[in-house]
Amino acid sequence: MRISLVLICIGWLVIVKAYGQQEKEVRLTSYVNPFIGTGPVDGNSLSGNNYPGATVPFGMVQLSPDTKDIPDWNAASGYDYNDPTIAGFSHTHLSGTGVAEFFDLLVMPMTGERHTQAGDVNDSSTGYRSKFSHDKEQAKPGYYKVQLLDYDITAELTATTRAGFHRYTFPEQTHEGYILLDLNHTLNKGAWGTKIIQSQIRVLNDHTIEGFRVLTGWAKMRKVYFRAEFSKPIVRNLIIDGEYEYENERVVNGNNLRAIFDFDVTDGQPVLMKIGLSPVSTANAQENLSSEIADWNFDGIVAAADALWEKELRKIVVEGSEKKKTVFYTSLYHAFLQPNLMSDANGDYVATDYVTRNNKEAPFYSTFSLWDTYRAAHPLYTIVQQRRSTDFVNSLLSQYDAYGYLPIWQLWGQENYCMIGNHAIPVIVDAIFKGLPGIDIERAYEAVKNSSVTTHLNSPFKLWDQYQYMPEDLQTQSVSITLEMAYDDWCVAQLAKKLGKTSDYEYFTKRSLYYKNIYDTKSAFFRGKNSDGKWLEPFDPLEYGANGGNPFTEGNAWQYFWYVPHDIEGLIELTGGKSNFSQKLDTFFTLETAADATNHNASGFIGQYAHGNEPSHHVSYLYNYVGQPWKTQHYVSEIVNRLYTDNHAGYPGNEDCGQMSSWYVFSALGFYPVNPADGVYAIGSPFFSEATIQLENGNRFRIKTKKKSEEDIYIQSAKLNGKPLNVPFLKHENIIKGGELEFILGKSPNKKWGTSPITRSLY
Amino acid sequence: MRISLVLICIGWLVIVKAYGQQEKEVRLTSYVNPFIGTGPVDGNSLSGNNYPGATVPFGMVQLSPDTKDIPDWNAASGYDYNDPTIAGFSHTHLSGTGVAEFFDLLVMPMTGERHTQAGDVNDSSTGYRSKFSHDKEQAKPGYYKVQLLDYDITAELTATTRAGFHRYTFPEQTHEGYILLDLNHTLNKGAWGTKIIQSQIRVLNDHTIEGFRVLTGWAKMRKVYFRAEFSKPIVRNLIIDGEYEYENERVVNGNNLRAIFDFDVTDGQPVLMKIGLSPVSTANAQENLSSEIADWNFDGIVAAADALWEKELRKIVVEGSEKKKTVFYTSLYHAFLQPNLMSDANGDYVATDYVTRNNKEAPFYSTFSLWDTYRAAHPLYTIVQQRRSTDFVNSLLSQYDAYGYLPIWQLWGQENYCMIGNHAIPVIVDAIFKGLPGIDIERAYEAVKNSSVTTHLNSPFKLWDQYQYMPEDLQTQSVSITLEMAYDDWCVAQLAKKLGKTSDYEYFTKRSLYYKNIYDTKSAFFRGKNSDGKWLEPFDPLEYGANGGNPFTEGNAWQYFWYVPHDIEGLIELTGGKSNFSQKLDTFFTLETAADATNHNASGFIGQYAHGNEPSHHVSYLYNYVGQPWKTQHYVSEIVNRLYTDNHAGYPGNEDCGQMSSWYVFSALGFYPVNPADGVYAIGSPFFSEATIQLENGNRFRIKTKKKSEEDIYIQSAKLNGKPLNVPFLKHENIIKGGELEFILGKSPNKKWGTSPITRSLY
């Protein structure tokens, strides 16, 4: 214990020195609660599907407890706060997804009987699982600790970018401690054809092991190599390949591998295990490990991880209530968990065509949940992760090179076609328009254009040209695709225009208006239409679609009605003018749905508004476009206050790789990118008394908000750099230049502020 | 036609110039009949499972017709001579295996209707298949030609090391010719979990396509990249991914891809397609293609392939009957088809741990069907493929590095554990004892030893140490494994001795005698024994085992009785002396089996002797060890004359990647490696009047045989370098030094020749 304390002190001194902060200053990492989003508060509700484990910003390794042995969509991060037992700690996790994947290299310490199966989640007596209690569990950025009650083992985890670090303290009076390594731990093998193709565990010496697994699953083919070292000598090893057991072998190859390593823990010293990962080779895993964790200073790595997080979180410093700061910094933390680095220390990575390539100039990132994250997460990165945004864009372009079109949902460097649209396009176009350096614009345009003309799954561009809408009989999810494709086309058109490609500009601009072709004036909704030009009957705007077999994707006609972010004036016109439009918005936020008309991805309701899924995310800001910004302020505040919590539920639906969090971060600051690629933010209802954005160019942008109580949610007046701001919009360039935005809030709406008509000049 | 003739002439001139031969000299390639072994002569018999297509010696590409759409063990090469239709031409094949695998990138030309499914083997009207006739089919080394009767298309194929070259001549008066590329063509998807994980077809321009497929099958995970060019512009392309159709797209990704490319063939010119393969990347495939097929000279590539074969075949020049020369040179051809090169022109290859590595110094080979080929194929390579033998050994050692033990059956660089034993060991030990340069002997010893102590599938060395035999209840196929493991152990012991590792030598020598522990004196057979030391009951020496669930592997107690190649004196002693032993041999060659007591891998019977499978292969030579070499001469002659044919059946069982052929090559020369790693060959009954081995060191070894008729099969006398040779054995070093071995044969046995007792001094 003494050594441990000394190390913590050293770690702390390092941090204090690095940041020159006074000890009294509260670290922003202390506001992050990694348990937020890890499990619903009751059985019928949803949570974020986040994980509580240890990781560094945008890292390759997420070392986190899995309560699920075979995780599925229900707890896609592997961990459900409501589960009573832990099956072990695996090294890779997705944050907030609806589909489970990764869970590489599960590690579990144990004493007593050497269990080789995880056992039942509710009965830890049947396998290597252990009961745990949230009283004896702790998580903070880069660090996780839990008492494994069945074994009285204290398990601590930390991580670097490409390596995990475990510290297991066995109970006193114990002689033998075991550490299990399970290479067969994956998502539910019934899903996505998941299976281990081949794997290896090799015992190099009594302190060192390495190996790999090759598997197919939601990611079509992943290779995961590792190299691990233990602080104590292995006194015995048992490697199990399904029905075969191998004792003290130097290497076992198989497709159902588990190993148990025995250690002498009589001296009361913990067993430490550090493990480097690589998608390329064990040699790279070794290099990743040695370059990131040189020695056995666990607490030093904890402190280093904390310092990395502090550095990232400090990009936005806010003043406000402890609860809101907790939700805010946890949201920022969740937003910065991914995209995940996928290249090794030496620059090697596996491209989308499964070819190992090398890029020493820039890191390669993956985990692009683009249907979610293009909306707010990527715009947020263009403000506070500018250098990484360039790397993200170039990583997206790498898929174009290897695959022929840009990612839809890129996982471990590979395309899984989850959801619809081609929303790498707005991400790339936005980054270019925002002037991020390091992007080859002509190459980017080629990628963006070819991704918009090369027919692929759910993107039948020939039908798009032929029918000028998606016919449901030829392409299901047709309304959602029509709307989202029109938006992507608008983005392509803007870039074409910038590059002087006039005919392309005209072509894609024309396509960007095809959304109008599925507007049914009679019902005043976008509706599914077949290739014969006839509307699908019967039509119920409350009817939900899932992911196929219906014109709507994870939503209904109400939720998708608003999806014309590039031509809101056109949508208003289509609806019959501002009055009709605002009335429709009012109905949207108040119309209750019959209970059986939801699917699991629509949740977090305010009327028909479903904050639990992305199609709604921009809608509360649309009142700004019809001169009623106080209603935006009202509903944004309601969402902030009612649908985000500081308990373990956290979110009203999947957190979705940072999107749900980025919505909160933007809304807390007081604005939101309704069109994620036009450099304009719609102003909502800021709630921190002060928020300072530290930009990478050295500038600062400060948002000050004067209010008397928490009920003061309505903007009374606003100033930008000392001058009155009367439109409810803010340009990206104003943020980047640095400056100050001041708001005065009050309890009642000021129906005169922000009512100026929107004009093109703003864009 | 004129151009084609000119090109043939140019090709011929190139060859004539390269070899300085007179035009009158008959090319040895003309004796090769690639149809040998391609199909049984009647439905109940077996053939070699060879393919008739185009390939170069030890090449990566085997471009050959597949009559099977989903091949299985029945025609594991994809082609059955008895089938009436061809489904297309794919680029990779195994020669003579019992398991089907590869079949990458099936290409099929067609006219008329664009079929997208292969259709039924007996009904070419249902898909893209075409009827064909052996009358209008031709094959020679590096060239295959067939008339596709349904389309009246002349299809011609040739190959370089890593590229295939197609020439399709469409019928006159035809305007549109189609070429189909099927990336979903594999072995039977019901077997080995075979499925396409991901694939891509990309149309780079109107002459060029590229792509890849990643799949799992008998080889756990293969990546096959390609780059192809057409001699004519593609006027239209249709790419099908299962239910989806893509017309004139630039790229399609999917897991069920077929493409049809349309060409204007109005001008009567053929459509040529050249295609480079790579296991690493499309960039490498492109480099492989451009470095091997620079232009469109199809006939030049045919001539070059022929020249490569002529060079290899000319390593043994024989004089004899046309029929025997046909069988001999086809056997030599089959022996030189594999191991297959698996590294790219730039040295890249995928190692056994799925990591892309590079070796610019030496090629990397795979396709090691070692349980078969260690017996005679690899010993043959140590005589006539010495440089490649070093590469083979170093390729085997590469698996040790990546996998922890040496190959059992290595396919596409990966282990598939087919069969039993660790017979890379004799291959490596033999190469070292034969003094092949370029092998790091200490490294090789480490690999050989660790492969003999690291328990893995079917090699439970801890049981071996504990029981000193394989207990059937703990390790099935126990008798076969005990015998074969004892032999491998003897090999390890010899290398240990050479390196002065005395304790290792003693340990492995002790293990090499464990075979005695399963000898049942009562039945006078090796028998299955359980861990309790009791023999398995009931015991029937005629009962066959397959590949598990029985002490015997693809054989019975009779066939496995003889498998002590390293201690034949010990076996003789065990049997009760030479007389008992020779009587037992007599019974073996005469005892008929009940018809229902065979399995498909035992075939080609002479009594219990089953030449159709490997365990019998050395047995006819065992009479030499008991002073009755004339019986060896008798049975070897019977096998040669009865079980090898020059028709399409060819072999009495799977040709097994060169083993069945190598047996013939050795036996034709007059000797055979009974112990494949002791550098001694047992003399049989040479049948060519003259055979000259051209060695890589420049020496020549000539075998002259005087006989009056084909019935003269018995050795009357022999001379080695002019001195009488009275033992029926020949040392490897005598061959390598060069020299002359003369035999005089007669119609009746000379029971005085070769009867000297064998002595250790020979070894």
TrEMBL record, chains A, B:
It comes from the Bacteria. One of its GO terms (molecular function) is hydrolase activity. Its cofactor is Ca(2+). Keywords: Calcium, Hydrolase. Transmembrane segments: none annotated. The keyword Calcium applies. Residues 31-278 form the Glycosyl hydrolase family 92 N-terminal domain. InterPro entries: 6-hairpin_glycosidase_sf (IPR008928), GH-type_carb-bd (IPR014718), GH92_a_mannosidase_put (IPR005887), GH92_N (IPR041371), Glyco_hydro_92 (IPR012939), PNGase (IPR050883). Residues 284-746 form the Glycosyl hydrolase family domain. NCBIfam families: aman2_put. Monomer. This is Glycoside hydrolase family 92 protein. It comes from Sphingobacterium micropteri.
